[in-house]
Amino acid sequence: MGRAVIGQLSRRNLLWGLVGGAGTIATLPLLSQRAIASTDPAARLSELGIELPEVPPPVANYVPFVITGNQVFLAGQIAFRDGELLFPGKVGLNVSVEDAQEAARQVAINLIAALNAACEGDLSRVVRCVRLDGFVASADDFTAQPSVMNGASDLMVGVFGDAGRHSRAAIGVNVLPLDASVEIAAVFEIA
Questions:
Q1: Is 45 left (phi over 0), alpha (psi -120 to 50) or beta?
Q2: Do 123 and 152 fall into the same domain?
Q3: How confident is the model over 24-72, as pLDDT tens digits?
Q4: Are residues 172 and 93 in the same domain?
Q5: Which residue range forms the structural domain that includes residue 14?
Q6: Which helix (H) or strand (E) holds 133?
């Protein structure tokens, strides 16, 4: 077998091992027991030391969220904190995986802020996080987009518990608005 084929098999076996080989995702103790002690999302945010920011007004012809039926579709967010874009650039070129994970975590906080606005300040209405669609500005040879997205996924589970487990996509792209390293859109089910 050639090196490329062996590399693909190794990656496939690694990914298969990460999902447990039977379609169940292996869980790692990434969050402290304290972080998952409460069942109220607002209390969990407080336990994690997270204050939700104000939802920024749209900069183009779109809205931050749309509610249809019992689903909330959140517009893509980037990693703004206190008016500053965190870790601009391309992951694998001038942004480290760890910095990109932190950017993804901040994006998740911004998504939860928009979700909170959609729920009129009552995050207990959240039934589950259905899907995260993550876009990672990537160097040509960068292939660890799923690792970057873990920054957002881990926070969703940390805030919403089992209801934070979601399907997702982690897509490498050439460039994102404002040179952001990460952009994420989301779908939630609410009551």
A1: alpha
A2: yes
A3: 333 334 444 343 446 899 999 999 999 999 998 887 899 999 999 999 9
A4: yes
A5: 1-29
A6: strand 126-137
